[in-house]
# Entry
Amino acid sequence: MSRPPVPFTAAGVVRGLARGSALSPGVLAYGVVFGVLAGEAGRSALEAVLMSAFIHSGSAQLAALQGLATGPFVAPIVATILLTNARYVLYGAALRGWYGAAPPAGVWPSLFLLGDGNWAMAMKEHEQGRHDGGFLLGSGLAQFVPWTIGTWIGHATGSAIADPRRFGMDFMIVALAAAMATAFWRGRASLAPAGVALAVALAVHAWMPGGWTALAAGLAGAGTAWMLHDDER
Amino acid sequence: MTTNADFLLALAAMAAASYACRLGGFAAMRFVRATPRIEAALRAVPLSVMIGIVAPSLGTSGPAEWIGLAAVALAMRLSGNNDPLAAMIGVAAVAAARAAGL
# Structure
């Protein structure tokens, strides 16, 4: 079965930038926090910015900072990054049906910028019938740029920066996820996968907190939908 | 603005691990035949992941976060599902609730 080719236009990139920029202040604030922590951990400004540019994942970078400070061994750090970023494997798999028909020259850089916020926004775009592949790239840049700039600012200014908790910035990704959950809700068909995902997420959170709940919930919801799927329809 | 070869080698390994996760699922699905059943499973992923991100805050958070979630739900209703706006209103509600000492 061949699919129609997916467009990848500048207009799609611009639309992604515009939609994604709503998240930029929160991303900037967390970039600043990482910059401060990287400075305190003895990394230079260049090193901090390189980490933000090339690892581009808050939880993985925090783990990496700790790993770099405790020993010369890279293998445990790489293993930690693979675990904290394992949810991206699921995100990428979910993008296949859409981006599989997009030009590869647009797909590879887009996936480099894949994050929680821009992935959720892009999946919603796709559900609403807008298939321009530029969206993920644009919304990804709206996170990548403030993340790296925030890192540099944080490293330059040090811990003089105010606590982002005061501005509720730690709540940004939860608030967005809650908003997205209502947007992704499709009535009764969503009930069973969502219920199982919630139960599994709560159990996993109680049992082994950390970066696992999103991945476990995603797998649980997918597994439920897989089992309940009726081939007759 | 300095660095050294040890750090750059570690950085290359860390970057490769990070990008491998981002590419891995997408690349692997090239070799999986997308049956309707698999497509149904993948369609359930976004909602499930969002629930997985919100769930930890349900158990451990205080009144400020509850107010924030209620503000998000209300803003989604009133704004016709404008999610970035609803998220920002939720963040503002949390900040205000914390400022009020909740």
Remarks:
- Chain B touches chain A through 73 residues (CB under 8 Å).
- The longest helix of chain B spans residues 5-28.
